[in-house]
Write a structure and sequence with these properties.
alpha/beta, about 230 residues
Length: about 230
């Protein structure tokens, strides 16, 4: 597998798996993404009330399952009773890592505070330092990850910012990930000069993806890994 720090390599990143075609953040979606030759599978991590790390985007189960209520107030057993689409279940973080290990690498987005130590523990125990990025919109979460284990690679996700490179450097990130509207060649070059890779999100049109690749970005997040 390609070194994740290789500035010359381009990563195709499957957003919640191949979520244009399969239920998002499910093993079925991740398997489909791997079948479509994705390099990295991206997913969202939260915690159940009994302390299990689970993969689901929203803070409630309402949109993506046949249940209702807050993820944080449900046990793992209760979450596993839900249908997350096409008969799929809400997966645990360990299940997703087992699914993709050796076939794709990982982008773990932290969706809440207080799980940083568990994330670092899982990455360390599974020796995933060269196979995983931990990303967040919240710089403090990334700072905490780096304080716990500097070897864990991190990425700062941004929508709009006057100086995204500075913000990423300030929290010790390895990747800066602005929204696609704000990607320019100048930004990508400045990030590279500061030792950062640049990812962008979420792109489902081939021509737009090709245009962004020409700016030199290191990775594009997409719901449709087959179009890049």
């Amino acid at each position: 597998m390609t070194d994740m720090q290789d500035q010359n390599f381009f990563f195709k990143i499957a957003h919640r798996g191949a979520s244009a075609y399969e239920p998002e953040n499910t093993l079925r979606s991740f398997e489909r993404a791997i079948d479509l030759n994705t390099d990295l599978i991206e997913f969202d991590v939260r915690q159940s009330i009994d302390g299990h790390l689970v993969v689901i985007h929203d803070n409630t189960v309402d949109r993506t399952t046949d249940g209702t209520g807050l993820v944080a107030l449900k046990t793992l057993s209760e979450l596993k009773e839900l249908n997350a689409g096409k008969g799929e279940k809400v997966p645990t973080l360990n299940e997703v890592l087992d699914c993709g290990r050796g076939r794709a690498k990982f982008v773990l987005e932290l969706k809440e505070n207080g799980i940083e130590d568990k994330i670092v523990d899982i990455i360390s125990k599974n020796e995933l330092f060269d196979e995983a990025f931990v990303v967040s919109f919240k710089p403090n979460r990334l700072k905490m990850i780096k304080e716990l284990e500097p070897k864990v690679k991190t990425g700062l996700i941004l929508f709009a910012s006057l100086d995204p490179v500075r913000l990423a450097k300030n929290c010790g990130a390895d990747v800066v990930a602005p929204f696609r509207w704000f990607i320019t060649k100048g930004l990508v070059e400045r990030a590279r000069e500061n030792g950062l890779q640049t990812f962008t999100w979420t792109v489902d049109e081939t021509l737009k993806a090709q245009s962004l690749k020409k700016t030199g970005v290191s990775g594009i997040v997409t719901n449709r890994p087959d179009i890049i």
